[in-house]
Amino acid sequence: xxxxxxxxGVLLVLLPGFACAYIVQFLAVRRKQSELDKVIEALLFSxxxxxLTLPFFGYTFPLGWGSLDAQHPNVYRIIINWKHLLWLxxxxxxxxxxxxxxxxxxxxxxxLRRVKVTERTARKAIWNDxxxxxxxxxxxxxxxxxxxxxxxxxxxxxxxxxxxxxxEASWLTTQDDGTESxxxxxxxxxxxxxxxxxxxxxxxxxxxxxxxxxxSA
Length: 217
What we know:
Blueprint: H1 2-27, H2 35-53, E1 63-69, E2 72-80, H3 82-105, H4 107-114, H5 126-133, E3 137-142, E4 146-155, E5 164-174, E6 180-184, E7 189-192, E8 198-203, H6 208-216
Antiparallel strand pairs: 1-2, 3-4, 3-8, 4-5, 5-6, 5-7
Helix pairs in contact: 1-2, 1-3, 2-3
């Protein structure tokens, strides 16, 4: 029986880190990890979480075991510190959300770039860097010399997917006299998938006020 309880205790020790890693996988967009990378990350999360919580609970784990009483030394009972478990659960969620925000917003890597330690970002690819940091009004060039203008609302996590959703979108056409005209798309916007043949995305220095003024005119 003690061996089984110890195995359960080991599982419980590892569980917060794996739960934390699962939340991060759900919230953060980052470079692909191997299965070994995911396991190592989860173990590191468990270590950090216990280092944060153990000092408040006498450096004891939330699960233990002991004899039922002196008359039944071979009958064991599980001792659970529910308060410690609750703190671990809360710490796992808070740490996962904070860590995911750091990956998505590139906080730590921005500091490291400022002090010339690295030139890398925490995000998956330059596709994510550009859309997350710039965004705004874009002009998208499609295959067949087609062009479309609109406000960037959504974009795919994977650069290989290369899908965009543009709001207040308009097709751009060039007239015979060389002037350009816009043909507004009636509706919320347009979804451009990789089958649209996206060749480039031009980020324009427009604001919502400029767009509203132009539409009024």
